[in-house]
Amino acid sequence: MIIERLIHPVNIHLHSKGIELSEKEWYMVLANHQSWVDILILQRVLNKKIPFLKFFLKKELIFVPFLGIAWWALDFPFMRRYSTTQLKKNPKLRGKDIEVTRKACAKFKSSPVSVMNFVEGTRLTTEKHNKQNSPFKHLLKPKAGGLAFALSALGDHIHKIVDVAIYYPGQTPTFWQYLCGEVKDVHVHIRVSDIDDKMRGDYQKDRAFKIGFQQHLNQLWIEKDAILETMAQSDSTITDKNKAVEINTTS
């Protein structure tokens, strides 16, 4: 982390109000997803504040230069997504991702961990946003199923959600731009909430729970979208307007 900060001196402006975090607790981390830079920013901001982040990743990402082999070595769970056509041809493939989630969560119970979930399922682009007809200005629609199952599988081990909104002034940077030192400033808003009983249940079989869970997650996304809009409108003055705690990662 120290070497990364020296090589890539990014100013991370952290916006939080009296949050309490611990490396001895289990957390579910939810963040918006725009670029693979998100992962590096999250690791940098949350390092030594909560347990090391573990991600559910698409299987194809194992081929990402440098990061892929690192994720594999760190035993990150890799998920394979099947298309509707593939599932129709081979119904036995249905539920394979749930089984991977089940096995990963069983490992996560052995010691404190922060489970990172990009519930949008993919990176935000204008094309994807338009194709979805997303009701959110800065976000894609959240996918509730994987999150609901992970919370259920982890049970009483996990009690907190760390909700993160990441905003890049100007255009969203690419991973290569980050490596080249072109990312100068990033704004990160963090809030922590309890995971109550309404967020635990059988997402597959309990329709009432499924609807309620989707509504709860949708409300979180409405609030996150508003936070991102505030950052977009305020841009460089966001720190002063929200009395944020500013962290300069170059120090």
Give a description of the structure:
This is Acyltransferase family protein. It comes from Moritella viscosa. Residues 27-169 form the Phospholipid/glycerol acyltransferase domain. With 251 residues, the protein is of the alpha/beta class. The chain is 38% helix and 18% strand. The strands form two sheets. Strands 3-6-2-7-8-1-9 form a seven-stranded mixed sheet, sandwiched between helices. β4 (57-58), α3 (67-73) and β5 form a beta-alpha-beta unit. The termini are close together. Mean pLDDT is 82; it is low at 237-251.
Key traits:
acyltransferase activity; 7-stranded mixed β-sheet; 38% helix; 10 helices; 18% strand; 251 residues; alpha/beta; globular; disordered C terminus; Glycerol-3-phosphate (1)-acyltransferase; two-stranded parallel ribbon
